[in-house]
Write a structure and sequence with these properties.
With 236 residues, the chain is an alpha/beta fold. The protein has one domain: Rossmann fold, CATH 3.40.50. It contains 10 helices and 10 strands.
C-alpha cells in the first residue's frame, strides 16, 4: 500500500488550472522525485498535499486515509512534515531554537537531545552556530536549518520542495548527501527538485510534470536514461 496517494488531484487559483488531475503514489520507504520545468505545477502539488492550497477536485490519501480538510498541525502529528520552497525558518530565533521548534510535538527529551546530535552530525556547521540568529545565516545554512527542523519531528513522510534552489554546488552536494542518508535510514521522501539529474540519481521512482499534468513516470534509473528526459531536463 502507498503511504501517500494522489488520485485525480486538481488545483486551481486565480483562474489558472495549475494541476489538472494527476495521479501519484509514494510507497513506504521510497524516495520519489517529481521533476519538471518552472511553472509545471510541482510546488502547487506539494502545497495541496499539506492543505496550504485547496483542491478543486480529486483525492489525497495519507496512511490509507483521506486528508481532505486536515490541518497541517494534525498532519505533522501524524508524521507528515514539509520543507517548503524558500525554507520558511524562524529568522529571529536562533539555530537551536529553530531545531527545537521542529520537536515541539514531542515530549521524549532524551531522544530529542539525541536527535539534535544527529542533526549536528548531518550538518556540523549548525553546531558551530547554535546561538546565532537564523536570519543571519547564509542561504545554504538556512536550508540546513529548514531540513534539520523538519527531521526533528521524526517524520514518516518528508516533503522537500526545491532544497537545492539558489545554493552553491558544494552546498547542493551536502544537501543531497543528507537526503540520501535520511532515505537510507528508512524515511519516506517526496522530492521536488530543479536539478533533475541529482534528483533522478537519488530517487527510486520518478514522475515528470508538465503544464499541470504527469507526462511520464517510472523507475528513476530508467527516466535518467530516457532520451526524451535527457534532452528536456538534463540539458543534453
Amino acid at each position: 500500500m502507498s503511504l501517500l496517494e494522489l488520485k485525480g488531484l486538481k488545483v486551481s487559483y486565480g483562474g489558472i488550472h495549475a494541476v489538472k488531475g494527476i495521479d501519484l503514489a509514494v510507497k513506504e520507504g521510497q524516495l520519489v522525485t517529481l521533476i519538471g520545468a518552472n511553472g509545471a505545477g510541482k510546488t502547487t502539488t506539494m502545497k495541496a498535499i499539506t492543505g496550504a492550497l485547496a483542491w478543486a477536485g480529486g483525492e489525497v490519501s495519507y496512511q490509507g486515509q483521506s486528508i481532505a480538510g486536515v490541518g497541517a498541525d494534525v498532519l505533522l502529528q501524524r508524521g507528515l512534515a514539509m520543507v517548503p520552497e524558500g525554507r520558511g525558518i524562524f529568522m529571529r530565533m536562533t539555530v537551536e531554537e529553530n531545531l527545537l521548534m521542529g520537536a515541539y510535538i514531542r515530549d521524549d527529551q532524551v531522544q530529542i537531545n539525541a536527535d539534535l546530535e544527529r542533526m549536528y552530525s548531518f550538518f556540523p556547521r549548525l553546531k558551530e552556530r547554535l546561538g546565532q540568529l537564523a536570519g543571519t545565516l547564509s542561504g545554504g545554512e538556512q536550508q540546513m536549518v529548514a531540513m534539520a527542523r523538519a527531521l526533528m519531528s521524526r517524520p514518516s513522510l518528508l516533503l522537500l520542495d526545491e532544497p537545492s534552489m539558489g545554493l552553491s554546488p558544494k552546498m547542493v552536494e551536502t544537501i543531497f548527501e543528507v537526503i540520501r542518508q535520511v532515505s537510507e535510514g528508512g524515511t519516506t521522501i517526496l522530492l521536488v527538485e530543479q536539478n533533475a539529474r541529482l534528483a533522478l540519481q537519488a530517487a527510486h521512482h520518478a514522475y515528470v510534470m508538465d503544464s499541470g499534468l504527469i507526462t511520464m513516470s517510472g523507475p528513476a534509473s530508467e527516466l535518467l536514461n530516457d532520451p526524451q528526459v535527457r534532452v528536456a531536463y538534463l540539458g543534453e
